[in-house]
Design a protein that fits this description.
The structure is a single chain. By secondary structure, the protein is of the alpha/beta class. It folds into two domains: 214 residues, Rossmann fold (3-Layer(aba) Sandwich), CATH 3.40.50; 150 residues, Rossmann fold, CATH 3.40.50.2300. It is 43% helix and 19% strand. It is built from 13 helices and 16 strands. The strands form four sheets. A seven-stranded mixed beta sheet has the order 7-6-8-9-10-13-14, sandwiched between helices. It has a five-stranded parallel beta sheet with strand order 2-1-3-4-5, sandwiched between helices. Strands 11-12 form a two-stranded antiparallel ribbon. Strand 6, helix 7 and strand 7 form a beta-alpha-beta unit. Helix 6 packs parallel to helix 7 and helix 12 crosses helix 13. It is globular.
């Protein structure tokens, strides 16, 4: 009964997106249909819904400006549940039944990886929103990315740990593609420069008790800990980790989001991450004009702040797709892909996007880091590890 209600609710939500995204009568043109799958239920529902809201906001804003090259945009969204098998089903439906023109890929990398052959085989131009390096290594020419690649950020994180004075690390990682590939990239880079990994413990998405894994990690007496995990798991892990006596530095693979900060409380002090952006509880906390405007409009539209940076990824993905279509002067897939490969200097929430390198990746260049102290995000530069704890060295 509960599952039936959930399915009906998701279908109603999807229908509302289509209705609200513009009509033929308003524009007098054939609509462009953009599809997306996101985890709207399950353990990844918060990031999935944040991503979907950002896509919805981008569609509304674009339609208010006349649509995509004069055509109204309609949005069709389905719940992947964060499950690869389900993602294959709903992606197939988007392509074969809904006849979408373009797609914004799932924020769960294993879902996009599972559906990648279908997407590419259908020649469906897709901007993915997950962070794994794996699905961009498959040679799928119709799949692009406008957010960071953990295969590039994690080696930077490993080097940062070493430069801070860390030599040994314990590890906790999930078993899905994004977390496994991030840990792999960190491990390979770390081993090349002299980091030693004392143990690597795993968890399954949805787990809530990490006491056994934490005890094993602490017994190995590492200088610091790496947690390769999705956001919803981080806060609970930190609270349990501190509760078992580890007060040192913890590296995480992506933004330690504002909801995780709230969930972890004082336990999040000493969390370090290499990532281009952070999340906020209020637009007033943000000093980046472009990001602040997005946050204000998101809050106005939905009555709440995005608690996950997945919304940033999805918003950039939509807007770079729009920019490529405008540059092409056409809504034809091949024309847009050609134009997309010439885009450089595009200002997104992530920073400057450049697709001219030929690898379909928009983010490159130096990415800085942050440490969480007193519930605030502090630039990482100048901080070192002394006796397993952070110490600031003025330069």
């Amino acid at each position: 009964m509960k599952r039936t209600f959930t399915i009906l609710l998701v279908l109603l939500v999807c229908l509302s997106f289509v209705v609200c995204s513009g009509s033929r009568e308003a524009f007098g043109a054939t609509p462009i249909i953009i599809g997306t799958t996101q985890p709207l239920t399950g353990t990844q529902a918060n990031p999935g819904n944040d991503a979907l809201r950002a896509v919805q906001l981008a569609v509304k804003q674009k339609n208010a400006k006349g649509g995509l090259n004069g055509s109204p945009i309609q949005l069709v969204a389905y719940d992947s549940q964060g499950i690869p098998e389900e993602a294959v089903k709903v992606v197939t439906r988007l392509i074969e039944v809904d006849k979408i023109n373009f797609m914004i890929g799932d924020t769960i990398s294993s879902c996009l990886l599972a559906a990648g052959n279908i997407i590419n085989g259908a020649k469906m131009l897709t901007i993915g929103t997950g962070l794994s390096s794996t699905w961009m290594e498959q040679g799928w020419e119709y799949i692009w990315r406008a957010c960071v690649n953990n295969g590039r950020t994690m080696p930077v994180a490993a080097q940062t740990a070493y430069d801070m004075g860390i030599r040994t690390m314990g590890v906790m990682h999930g078993q899905d593609d994004a977390n496994m590939s991030a840990w792999k990239a960190f491990r390979e880079a770390g081993e090349r420069i002299g980091l030693t990994f004392t143990t690597a413990e795993t968890y399954i998405e949805g787990d809530t008790d990490f006491s056994g894994q934490i005890a094993k990690i602490i017994q190995t007496n590492p200088d610091a800990i790496l947690m390769s995990s999705h956001g919803p798991t981080m806060g609970a892990f930190l609270r349990q980790l501190r509760g078992q006596g580890f007060s040192g530095i913890v590296f995480v693979k992506e933004t330690f989001t504002s909801d995780s900060v709230q969930q972890a409380g004082p336990a999040c002090d000493g969390v370090v991450f290499i990532y281009p952006y952070v999340t906020y509880l209020s637009p007033d906390e943000c000093d980046d004009p472009m990001l602040r405007t997005f946050l204000e409009e998101f809050l106005k539209e939905f009555g709440q702040m995005p608690i996950q940076e997945h919304s940033y990824r999805a918003y950039d993905s939509m807007n770079v797709l729009f920019a490529a279509a405008e540059k092409a002067g056409s809504n034809d897939t091949q024309a847009i892909m050609k134009a997309l490969g010439t885009i450089s200097g595009f200002k997104g929430l992530v920073g400057t996007l450049d697709f001219t390198k030929g690898d379909r990746e928009g983010v490159s260049g130096k990415i800085g880091g942050f440490v969480v102290l007193g519930g605030k995000y502090v630039p990482l530069e100048g901080w070192v590890a002394k006796g397993g704890h952070l110490e600031y060295l003025k330069k």
